[in-house]
Amino acid sequence: HMTTIHIKSNIGRLSAYCGAICASAGVAGAISFLSGLSLEQIGYAIETTLGTMSGVICDGAKSSCATKIASGVSAAFDSYYAASKNRKFEFGEGIVGKDVEKTIKHVGILGQQGMKVTDEVILDIMIKNI
Q1: Which end of the chain is more exposed for a tag (fewer CB within 10 A), N or C?
Q2: If DSSP codes are grouped into helix, strand and coil, which group holds residue 91?
Q3: Could you report how far apart the first and last alpha carbons of the chain are, in Å?
Q4: pTM for this predicted structure
């Protein structure tokens, strides 16, 4: 939970960045921790989940959330498995930073700045119902 809160706190309260993705990264970290992976490997799992799933948009807590959560949990398990084999996305691949904290900062920038226009477009679609 604390990992999810840490990631989400960088994004802010309202964003088109899907909160289920923050939770998925937390799940990846938790699975890795409970499986006895090293702190470094736990970071790999979190980064891989964020690198894989960032870009999923929030459309206002609809029934599509269940599918987004399922996709995120699947990515969390895949990320855990990759981390257990010391595999990860490398610095500079997409939003992945030099370490897990830099990647989380990048997610915050994506959620706060990058998703501003996306949020407006989603709201416009929902209001006009086109």
Answers
A1: C
A2: coil
A3: 37
A4: 0.90
Q: Can you tell me the distance from the alpha carbon of 115 to that of 80, in angstroms, rounded to the nearest whole number?
A: 27
**Burial class, 112, CB count within 10 angstroms (exposed 0-12 / middle 13-18 / buried 19+):** middle
Beta-carbon contacts of 30 under 8 Å, excluding residues fewer than 6 positions away, are 3
> Distance (Å, rounded) from C-alpha 58 to C-alpha 21?
10
Structure tokens at 84: 């257990």
- State the pLDDT at residue 118: 86
What tokens does 14 get?
């309202």
For the chain, give the mean pLDDT. 92
pLDDT of 50 reads: 96
Report pLDDT digits (tens) over 58-81: 877 678 889 999 999 999 999 999
- Can you tell me which residue has the tokens 């998925």? 24
